[in-house]
Design brief:
alpha/beta, two-stranded antiparallel sheet, rod-shaped
Length: 169
């Protein structure tokens, strides 16, 4: 606490002067409070741990061809749009549009057509206009829907042409 100290006895023979008071401020409680707050915030703050997803990479023994009846191609477009079709782009399939909602791509991945075929493979392709977040979101959807076979594939020219014909790119 702050204390005011004053000189008790005036010096003999000196002129009468105003009493000189000096203030002494004890900083110990303030330092204690600072350390107490620092300790409190350090102990109560949860440290954010980075989340990582395990992706098992195939052994480099060459690529195995996928049959058109087993392929679901998912193309990540701009503004969080997803285009998908069954088969390959060379066969000119019907391109459908969806989004990342639970009734969107998740319902496609959980569809009976995909679940009934144990050989089905999801081919994930990203356009230049898609965001990195979209790729992470589609990988999360693969994990949520327990899709075992999927691959990240480059967007082919046939895919670009197919999307342009449908007016989606």
């Amino acid at each position: 606490m702050a204390q005011v100290q004053e000189n008790s006895e005036p010096i003999k023979g000196a002129k009468a002067r105003a009493k000189r008071m000096s203030a002494h401020l004890d900083m110990t409680p303030m330092v204690d409070l600072a350390f107490l707050l620092l300790t409190f915030f350090m102990l109560t703050t949860t440290f954010a741990k980075p989340q990582a997803m395990d992706i098992s990479m195939p052994i480099d023994e060459g690529t195995s061809p996928v049959k058109a009846k087993n392929a679901l191609t998912v193309i990540l477009g701009e503004k969080d749009k997803i285009y998908y079709y069954f088969g390959f782009a060379d066969d000119v399939p019907e391109v459908l549009e969806t989004d990342f909602s639970s009734t969107g791509i998740r319902s496609v991945l959980l569809s009976e057509k995909l679940r009934a075929n144990p050989e089905s493979v999801v081919l994930i392709k990203a356009t230049e206009a898609s965001r990195y977040r979209n790729l992470v979101d589609i990988l999360d959807e693969m994990k949520i829907t327990d899709t075992r076979k999927y691959a990240l594939v480059d967007l082919a020219t046939a895919d670009k042409l197919l999307l342009q014909e449908k007016g989606n790119l």
